[in-house]
Amino acid sequence: MGMERPTQTQEVVLPWGEGELKVRVPSGWNMVYPERGHVLASDARSELAIVTSAVENPVGLDPISRMNLVGKNVVIIVDDNTRPTPVFKYFSMVLDKLEAACGDLSRVLLIPALGIHTPMTKEEMAAKVGGQNLSRLRWENHDAFDAGKNCAFGTTTRGTPVALNSHLEDAELIVLMGLIEPHLMAGFGGGMKNILPGVAAADTIGVHHQLLTDPPETFNRVGMEPRQNNFRLDFEEVAGMISADIFCINVVIDHGGQVMAAFAGDPIEAHRQGVDYTRKAQGRHLPEQVDGIIVNSYPMDINFKQSMKCVGNALPALKPGGAVMGFLKADRGMDDLPLPDKMRLPLFFIKGLLRIIGPKHVFALLKVIKKGLNAEETFLYYYILQLIRAHDLFLYVPSLTVEETERLFYFDHCAETGEVIRKGVKKIGHKATIAVFPEGGATYPIVFGG
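RESULT FIELD:
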């Protein structure tokens, strides 16, 4: 459960780069600092030893070393450079095991799980898996937009027409390498997510993402139990459409990017075990929802897109209509994230309209006011509209320019830290319960003992 700190402590201290950020709060606020519900024993083994042990003792499948892969096609799918998975630390070990099972690596192909992201350069792929490792095998980018490079595998029971990278049709083993972390849509990253959306066709991704608009319109699914999340269950169903064996290698990392734990084997069973661990490692217990949240982007400080994760991660702690008070370091500012078109309507008008129409009609409104968006853009906007319909956001992001904050219409930008708190007070008053997430980029709340 959350540990309450004395309200006379009117200062919140947040990690901020190499230093800290001190934020003054009203004395009448009841400050709650959610904590882990479990004590995790530290693993003294090296990162390589942790992953190797998981690969040699997989869940629900034979280890790679016992597979006869001579003359067979193998596809390795690694998450792309939008994820901090330190694949380079253990990729050579995986290649060694595949080389022993295959006789050589001539029939092994590496593909990044791009979805509809920008293709990776050779330098970026070398940074992901290690330069020497990359030189040992063939690799190519996935292309979600070329129909000739994707083929049909069937349709899920939820109506998603599944078209995937054509190399999966000829593969006899598929190795997925990813990261289990809180995720806005899938609840947790990792598992079969490397396949859908990772190497799926754009149309497949678009239809699949529409599941987020199904009742009860749960637009934020951070930490959601996998068996309750139709978005995750839909892409996990794809495992049964693929004839190849699928061997999953997922890791959980700490705030410094070090491997804490690894889970390998069946892409669903092993992932479930990884989720259980992640809930203990990154979940923060909270007895009930609160009036406001103070969230800090650490350790996801590289750019605005990564820093914004702290907001989504912490949302389950917030009552409807609550206030988000965010402190986002975003060292590189917008980085390569394109700016949205400037909205012609003021934020207060957009909020009012969204609250009138309710959550069920947000997607329909989006299709009217924003045409020509790709699948990722569509559901990013959908998420944003649902977010501002439900909550007020007051953010301090010192790396953004005035022009950028004007184009990022969906939050009140605050020029200094005190302004964030003053706007929060105006929204929820001087007597309120506030949950604080100093490491909001990598943790999430588990409410009611979740």
